[in-house]
C-alpha cells in the first residue's frame, strides 16, 4: 500500500516560517494564546491560562503517535501561533487544523502563506486530499478557508461537544490534488500582491 506521510520539517515563506513544534516555542506560544482569551469559546478546547499545560503535554504525546504533526507559526523569530497536520497516511489524506494565531498577525499574509506552505508540502508528498474542519459558528474561519480556495462539502450536525459544553456543528472543506495547481496559483497571486509590511 502506498502511504502519504509528509516529513516534519521547516517550511519557509516570505511572511512566515513553520517549524516543527518544540520546547523552544512553548513560552511564546503560551503568550500568544493569552492574547485573545475570548476567542477560545469558538474552539473545541482552550489553550489559554490553566488549559495551556494540558494542551502542550497532549500535543507532545500525540506527536509521538505519528499521526499528529504540529507546526509553530514563527513570525520575525517569535512563535505567534500553531497549525497542525492530522495525518491519515494509508488513505493519503490529511486535515489541517488546530490553528490559532496571535491577533497581531490575523488579517495579514501569515494565514494564506501558512496554508500555502502546508498544502504544498502535503501534495508534494503524495497526499490526495487536504481537509479543513471549522466550527459552524466561526464565520471568520469559514470565510478564510473559502478564500483559500477550498470547497465546502457539507455540515456535520452535532459533531462534537466543546470544552464549554456547547454542542458544535462542523463545516467540512477540502482541496483535492487535482485542484491544487489552480488553488496554488490563486494563493501565489494573492500573496504576491501583499507588501512585506502586511506579512
UniProtKB/TrEMBL annotation:
It comes from Caulobacter ginsengisoli. It comes from the Bacteria. PANTHER family: BLL6696 PROTEIN, N-ACETYLTRANSFERASE DOMAIN-CONTAINING PROTEIN. Residues 16-169 form the N-acetyltransferase domain. PROSITE patterns: GNAT. Pfam families: Acetyltransf_3. This is RimJ/RimL family protein N-acetyltransferase.
